[in-house]
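Hi V.,

You were right to ask for the full record rather than a summary. Here it is.
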Amino acid sequence: MAQYDVVIIGGGPGGYNGAIRAGQLGLKTAIVEGRGKLGGTCLNVGCMPSKALLHASEMYEAATGGEFAKLGIEVKPKLNLVQMMAQKAESVEALTKGVEFLMKKNKVDYIKGWGRIDGPGKVVVKAEDGSETVLETKNIVIATGSEPTPLPGVTIDNQRIVDSTGALSLPEVPKSLIVIGAGVIGLELGSVWKRLGAEVTVVEFLDRILPGTDTEVANAFQKILAKQGFKFKLGAKVTGATASAKQVELTVEPVAGGAAETLQADYVLVAIGRRPFTEGLGLESVGIVPDKRGVIANDHFKTTAPGVWVVGDVTSGPMLAHKAEDEAVACMELIAGKAGHVNYGIIPGVIYTSPEVATVGQTEDDLKAAGVAYKVGKFPFLANSRAKINHETDGFVKVLADAKTDRILGAHAVGPNVGDMIAEICVAMEFGGSSEDVARTCHPHPTRSEAFRQAAMGVEGWTMQA
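Predicted structure:
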């Protein structure tokens, strides 16, 4: 029977980054993953393959949508969907092998199979052939992630009615695609197929897209998507779906009341969110009871069971790979007797559409609700030299700062590459920085990052380039 300091159940960003840090700290560590490949949802059927298709579809749209011609590049592109999917798979395979190498480098035992807790300090791993291995450990870390949330009345068959995994591997470009849910996953995957030629309609229960993001940014982003050809049905409830060999009929009715209507599409993507994955985990063997949403509660990553820890999507907080990574690192440091901490007020979120949406900290909606006095600085990409010369002027940057102290409280942007640039604000906030700190920091010209500096200048009313 193998003896460990730490056994991690789940090989996603929380699990594998936790394993790396545990190995660095000298803890004898095993990571258990049933998928057959490390990387979890993110690497295999989430973040990474979706980015591969987002990038490829952006290139295709640039070549077919007139952008290349405007730049003086004349081409006659032809879509090869099989090759597009193949390069996606190749990229994913390379990443998963890279993670496996990092396990060896940090002396972590990678055990293939589905893990379940079997009482205190014991994890049973069931291999593909049905055999079971028992691991004894001082600490168990649950990092099992999440799965797509089902929608009552809509049966996902991953043929005509697909979840996010199915939407990454459609065998053809749909003539029409209905996306249920106007959140991050729905809009990203809807963007992929929209660029490749599909007519995309987004059906959302709420009266806005991107719930939880800054309202002004979300509204501006919706207008940009509508200009790109997206259609929206907001405040609409899906009550049923019927799939045939070639299409889907969707029954939709207004949330506020009114007559139902039937929508038809080649494919339907259900993207209403994700829920924690705890099936067959053996939580009852150590007395852990998830809440009604399936979330396992934690107190500094500790569960109610001694020696059992939890990180990532399966516990509270935003379901983001980088949040899981930070939690896993902090968790391992606590197990090793060090200080471990995550600043939940500074976890950025990005939507990798074109243009991108990026956000960190509090929104204007949050500050108004809390009665916090604040100042706003804004700057449009239309006035940014690099964005203008590159024909990517949609969007703006908004910086929010405390009215008295000037400390940055949040930043929100829609525009080119804002997902990369939001990190500047994260660093400033981590150090308690002010809008003036960003405004007086020299930025290279001409770059899109100057939009963040100009927005920070705007907090005190001295924006110079607009």
